[in-house]
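Please check what follows.
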Amino acid sequence: MRKTILLKAIALLLIISSCSDDEGQDLIDFTVNFTSETVSTNEEDTSVDVQLNFSRPASEAGTINIAYTGTNAEYGTDFTTTPDGGSGTIAINVAEGDQNASFTFNKLTNAIEGSTKSVSFSIDGFDNIDWSQGAAASTLVSFTPIASTSGVIDSENGGATIPNQVYFDFSSATQTVVKRDTWEIALYNGTENRVFLNSALAVSAVELTGVTDLLTITEASNLSEPMELIGLNAMFQPEPVTVNTVSELLEGLPVGYYQYGNLDEGISFTDNPEGTLEDTAFSEVSTTAEENHVYIVSMGNEIPIEGELEEPIDPGSINTTGDHRGFLKVRILSDGNNYTIQYADLAETDSYSEVTVAKDAAYNLTAFSLTNGETVSVEPTKEQWDINLSGVFAYYGDSGGLVAGLTYSDYVVHNNLGGAGVYQVIVEDDAPTYTDFSMGNVDEASFVFNNRSQIGTGWRQPYGGPVYEDRYYVLKDIDGNYYKFMFTAYTSTEGERGNYQFTYERL
């Protein structure tokens, strides 16, 4: 086992070094594309940003000119833009180093029910003769909701420390960006009373069976009965571990190779990777208060700050795991419509904090920050996201025979709790290419609705290897729209990890 791990490490170093040999190569052509061919608004929207992507960062400043044509829509009466487009053209300034640009569409009126109102924007030239328009040279902004047809998306995960989670909705071509350290737990808004952990931050939790009083537990406390667990020794071999005290338990609670667990006995301090309501680290929250026990929560790891690192992150490498964020003790109660969260520092014996959070049926989960003691806006409403480019994903499980706390980078999950389904297509003799795949090729029986990790890292080769070119995904959203999408990169043009790109098309 140790030999295998060493070989994998050597392979990773070879891949990283090969990713850094791009200096001195000629710059690729600078092309400009609209992110999506359609942008929609609803009655409540008063403005929306229209995004443009570049093939590479701009090596010099310049201007992009955008023309527009309205259908039942006049400039100044029905809409305006920022920058101003009253002359018939919008001039968008690009600074050296910019990787994208945008302008704002300001909606002044709504469409009359049953009528069509839209504005078509198109690239109308540049003041730099070396710049050119790409394949997506126009976009249609609708005054009413329409499903997006296609686009090329550059995610906003933030680079080699992957500080952000990105939720993406195909039908609106919208990214929702959230720092992955803004929350630790999330409360399920369905009929069951469930608690989920932030797997992108490597949060874990263990139940102290029989304990209902937070203030009786400290690091020095004895467990009510010993826990028989499995850990890995220094040679990465499994061996039994008997835990008698909270202090001993803390040694194997954080996610990592030396995390304790026992899958044969159903013991895991993380949620299952599938993201279902069963097999979460927290048991189902009972409406009988005495049945809800105290948990110790490992708060995960800090997000490294690139400017404060001792060594810069090499191109093609990542650094997603900083210092451990400590432990809290937590107890959660429910009356079926609300959750009550009780929590305190592990050493606290005098008082604890208590917050009540109401269920909100518009969302799968309501995220909560144990650090700040408040709910946090993380997931969009359940109908408004399809995939989550979580970047980092951690759980206790089996990888190639190594049963331990595992952390993955470049990870993608889909909205299984919201009802989205997805499956992978690998191009073989009887499977069409991504370009040729159409609605007639959709296999309804292949959609996976109950496993959020169906995409995972299956779109790229292991150990920092390149994106697979022989596979893509088919997704069915909650509204019955079908999309195909294919990952094309997870590094920037400079080789920085944590910059995902994918192309998609509605079927």
